[in-house]
Amino acid sequence: MPQQTDVRQLVMGFGRGIGGALLFAMPLLMTMEVWRLAHAVDRHRLAALVLGTVLLVVGLARNLGSTGAGWRASLVDAGVAFLAAAFATASILTALDVLDWLQDWRDAVSVLLLALLPAAVGASYARAQLGESSVAPQGSGYRHELFLMVAGAVVFASNLAPTEEIVLLAAKMTPWHTLVVVAVSLTLMHAFVYLVGFGGQEEHDGPVQAFMAYTVVGFVLALCIAAYLLWTLGRFADTGLLMVITESVVLALPAGLGAAAARLIL
Fold this sequence. Notes:
The chain has helices at about 1-30, 30-40, 45-65, 70-95, 105-130, 140-160, 165-170, 175-195, 205-230, 240-265. The chain has about 270 residues and is mainly α.
């Protein structure tokens, strides 16, 4: 009986992982630019992105709570989350005739790996937090909250980074628009967590300390993640420094909201 219970929990956890992967990654899977960019992205940059995804999901399994104690349990949970994300992503993209494994399996793998980032995060979150017997997060403190902000920023940014709209918006903006977007991003991030009464908002920090330690730092993290994703996808090729900054700021707007939301939800 205990063995049957373990198998049942594993199957249910895998199913939750599939659901979480689709919930977090479906916008990316339905985005045409992903299919095209995955064929052209530098293989070394894609490999670095996959490695970062692995580390992020292992960290999430550790911070959000795994099915057991210790790093071994976290690694097992991360592995199951990856398998669930890969299965969900491959199934949807194959059903939509985006992936043709017989004609060109290398391109199919590239598209799959590019879409795994938000899918694997979603699978890890769903496995850890949406089950009947979900366990409490094993992390706490300032570093824990920063890590969760990184995860939230990654999900929002990775769903939008491949789109042409980021480049088009950045091309239309002046430096003054860029400064306004930075101000709007900081205002929205701070309001989400401290001002508008969402459940889970912080109350123990003073307004100045909270703004500097969480909002500003969170925005910087979101900006760095946005820049890294855009660089990985080749969006900075043949562009000047001003355009690089502007594109990163544009993508940091949704990434910052994702970071703020993650502090409330996770």
